[in-house]
Design brief:
alpha+beta; Triger factor/SurA peptide-binding fold; 11 helices; globular
C-alpha cells in the first residue's frame, strides 16, 4: 500500500530542487554540516533549472542564480535528513523511470533518448538529473512515511462532485503557486508582490521564487484536470478566467493557492469517474503533504549549522 501511495505521489508532483551560479572560478559559498556548496554547484543547478523551465531565460539572471543557490541548499538539507533516516537510500528503478518520463513529457519530449540529447544541448548531465530526482523522491517517501496517516480525504464527497453523465468535458491545464502568510493582514500585500513578479517575470519564475509546492521548480505546472474533479472553491475561482489569466489567492488547507490557466480544452467524451477520482484525490493529498513537507523541512533546517561564506 505504501509503495502504491508513493508511486501516486511521485507521479503527480515532482520534488526537484535545483540551483545555478555564475563564473568559472570554483568557490565555496555555503557549508551545511559536512556538506559544501560551491559556485560550480550553483552554476550546474542554474543550467538545470533553465533546461526544465526555458521561460526562465527571459528572467533576470542574477535573480535566477539566487533562487538556484537557495534551491541547492534545500536539496542538501534534504539529503542530510535522508541519509540519517534510511540505511541504504536508493529509489526503486521503476519509480525513477516513471519520474523521468513525467519530467521530459512536461517539456514536450517524447522519450528518454530525446531527453538525453536535450540535456546535452543545454550542458546538463543526465546522471546529475537522476541524482536530483532520487533525492527528491526519497524525501517524498520520507514525508509519506511520517505523515501519510495524517492525510484526510473524503472520497465519497469527492466522487459526488464528478458528474459521470457529462458527455461534454472541459479540462484545464494549470500551474500553481502555493504560499503562506504569517498574518492574514499581510495577504493583500503578498498577493500584490507575487502578482507584480508574475506580470514582470512570468508565472514560472514566480512559482520558483514563492511557491512552497514541490512543483515550484517546474514553474508550478500541473497535469490536465477535468473541471468536474475540481472542488467548488477552485472551480468558482477559475470559471471566468481566460488562458494565461491567474486567480486571486484561494484559501486551501495550510495556506493559499494561486492558479494560472495555461490551456483549456473541451472534449465530447464520457467522463471516467474512477480516473477523475484518482486525479482529484491525488491533488488533495498533495496539497496536504506539501504542507507537512514544508513544516518538517523548516524544523530540521533549524537544527543544522548553515554558514554562508
Amino acid at each position: 500500500m505504501l509503495k502504491k501511495l508513493i508511486l501516486i505521489y511521485l507521479t503527480t508532483i515532482f520534488f526537484i530542487n535545483s540551483s545555478s551560479s555564475f563564473g568559472i572560478e570554483n568557490k565555496i559559498l555555503v557549508k551545511i554540516e559536512n556538506q559544501i556548496i560551491t559556485s560550480l554547484d550553483v552554476n550546474s543547478e542554474y543550467k538545470y533549472l533553465i533546461a526544465l523551465n526555458p521561460s526562465l531565460k527571459n528572467s533576470n539572471k542574477k535573480d535566477v542564480i539566487e533562487l538556484s543557490k537557495r534551491s541547492i541548499v534545500n536539496e542538501r538539507i534534504k539529503k542530510i535528513e535522508i541519509e540519517k533516516t534510511f540505511k541504504n537510500p536508493q529509489l526503486p528503478e521503476e519509480f525513477l523511470n516513471k519520474i523521468l518520463q513525467n519530467v521530459y513529457s512536461r517539456i514536450g519530449l517524447a522519450n528518454l533518448d530525446d531527453f538525453k540529447e536535450y540535456l546535452i544541448l543545454n550542458n546538463v548531465d543526465i546522471e546529475n538529473v537522476k541524482n536530483k530526482l532520487e533525492i527528491e523522491a526519497l524525501w517524498n517517501e520520507l514525508i509519506l512515511i511520517k505523515f501519510s496517516s495524517k492525510v484526510k480525504i473524503n472520497e465519497k464527497n469527492l466522487k459526488a462532485k464528478i458528474n459521470k453523465d457529462n458527455k461534454f468535458s472541459k479540462s484545464y491545464l494549470l500551474s500553481e503557486i502555493s504560499f503562506e502568510v504569517s498574518n492574514l493582514n499581510d495577504l493583500d500585500n503578498k498577493f500584490s508582490e507575487i502578482s507584480d513578479v508574475i506580470n514582470n517575470s512570468g508565472f514560472d519564475f514566480a512559482a520558483l521564487k514563492y511557491s512552497v509546492s514541490t512543483t515550484s521548480n517546474f514553474g508550478g505546472k500541473l497535469d490536465w484536470i477535468n473541471e468536474n474533479s475540481l472542488n467548488r472553491k477552485i472551480k468558482d475561482a477559475i470559471k471566468n478566467l481566460k488562458i494565461n489569466d491567474f486567480t486571486k489567492p484561494i484559501n486551501v488547507s495550510g495556506g493559499f493557492l494561486i492558479l494560472q490557466i495555461n490551456d483549456i480544452r473541451n472534449t465530447q467524451i464520457e467522463v471516467n469517474v474512477e480516473e477523475e477520482l484518482i486525479k482529484i484525490t491525488n491533488f488533495e493529498k498533495n496539497n496536504q503533504l506539501n504542507q507537512y513537507s514544508k513544516i518538517y523541512f523548516n524544523k530540521i533546517k533549524k537544527n543544522l549549522q548553515i554558514d554562508e561564506l
